[in-house]
């Protein structure tokens, strides 16, 4: 009787995810390779888990109460009153949203446009040339692949990435891909200057000496991630980037006109619309940790789209996997009896390795470091 029941049971749906991931990885052609091959149905590795629903939180209407702040940096170096206003705006945005956009930030529009074009040139060159850069070696200064967490995340994102570690150890020019070499060097220099200015403003917003955050090397590392999101034939089944927070002190994002970036705010997914000439700035986990939750590292995601390709350039201020040995913990000047430390000390590399091992699974890595 038992045998008959076993024989009658339906066969389980055999799905060898690991083999499919490896087959995709071995092509070294990324998501763009699938699109170039003419896929009309996305492979199962990209399907969101059944428990994930886009309707978990509604995306809000475009009303003023749900628009991330746009802060104008014009004149902050010369006008004391203007600087004070900007510091207040940065403080408010960092405490409530964890996100804001900046205009008149000092990086010329021509540099921004050429950076986006350089990323497109890299991805749209011959696949065989790109394969030279394809690697999963975390210590490589230049690494192209699809999904840093390919083998650990619950679903694969519809996105390819070129990662270039531009500080503290800048690669030799010849190590950078030719289609975006010159602009990567120029853009990284300019975004580093902006980052240093942002950390001064954030220090002031915390009531600290303007040099405090730069003094503890928050701007020591710069990792530039050049993302390419091909047009997706079934955007309702996947995401461009899963819900996550950044393992950085600060991220400065250049996005193109396509859109798709959303931040989780008051349990709603809010669009961060592209603003011509603007850069998106967001607080990372490491800044939330050292400010003892004063500044908020907000969860965000990128939805997939039939439009595209979408290009974005995320500049992460952190030393990533470099073994610097520097320990970070909540800043003592911000602590009191009523505000004791909420996190244990950690190195940046330990934090980043933990996040990579965990993958983008929709949960915060900060929980692991809470006291």
TrEMBL record:
InterPro entries: DIOX_N (IPR026992), IPNS-like_FE2OG_OXY (IPR044861), IPNS-like_sf (IPR027443), Oxoglu/Fe-dep_dioxygenase_dom (IPR005123). Its cofactor is Fe cation. Keywords: Iron, Metal-binding, Oxidoreductase. One of its GO terms (molecular function) is metal ion binding. Coiled coil: none annotated. Residues 218-320 form the Fe2OG dioxygenase domain. Gene3D superfamilies: B-lactam Antibiotic, Isopenicillin N Synthase, Chain. Belongs to the iron/ascorbate-dependent oxidoreductase family. This is Fe2OG dioxygenase domain-containing protein. It comes from Carya illinoinensis (Pecan).
């Amino acid at each position: 009787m038992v045998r008959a029941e076993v024989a009658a049971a339906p066969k389980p749906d055999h799905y060898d995810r690991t083999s499919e991931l490896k087959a995709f990885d071995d092509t070294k052609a990324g998501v763009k390779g699938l699109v170039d091959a003419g896929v009309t149905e996305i492979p199962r590795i990209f399907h969101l888990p059944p428990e994930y629903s886009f309707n978990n939180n509604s995306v809000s209407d475009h009303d003023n109460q749900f628009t991330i702040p746009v802060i104008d940096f014009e004149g902050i170096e010369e006008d004391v009153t203007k600087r004070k206003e900007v510091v207040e705006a940065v403080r408010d945005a960092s405490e409530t949203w964890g996100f804001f956009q900046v205009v008149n930030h000092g990086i010329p529009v021509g540099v921004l446009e050429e950076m986006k074009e350089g990323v497109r040139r890299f991805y749209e060159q011959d696949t065989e040339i790109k394969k030279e850069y394809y690697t999963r070696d975390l210590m490589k200064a230049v690494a192209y692949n699809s999904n840093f967490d390919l083998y650990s995340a619950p679903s694969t994102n519809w996105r390819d990435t070129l990662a270039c570690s531009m500080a503290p150890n800048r690669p030799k020019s010849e190590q950078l891909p030719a289609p975006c070499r010159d602009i990567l060097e120029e853009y990284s220099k300019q975004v580093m200057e902006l980052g240093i200015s942002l950390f001064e403003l954030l220090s002031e917003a915390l009531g600290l000496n303007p040099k405090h955050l730069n003094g503890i090397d928050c701007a020591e590392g710069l990792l530039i991630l050049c993302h390419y999101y091909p047009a997706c034939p079934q955007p309702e089944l996947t995401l461009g980037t899963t819900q996550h927070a950044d393992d950085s002190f600060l991220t400065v994002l250049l996005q193109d006109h396509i859109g798709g970036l959303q931040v989780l705010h008051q349990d709603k997914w809010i669009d961060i619309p592209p603003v011509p000439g603007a850069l998106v700035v967001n607080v990372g986990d490491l800044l939330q940790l050292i400010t003892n939750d004063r500044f908020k590292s907000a969860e965000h995601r990128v939805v997939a789209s039939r439009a595209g390709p979408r290009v974005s350039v995320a500049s992460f201020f952190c030393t990533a996997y470099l073994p610097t040995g520097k320990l970070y913990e909540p800043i003592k000047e911000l602590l009191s009896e009523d505000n004791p430390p909420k996190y244990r000390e950690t190195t940046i590399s330990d934090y980043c390795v933990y996040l990579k091992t965990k993958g983008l699974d929709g949960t915060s890595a900060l929980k692991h470091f809470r006291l």
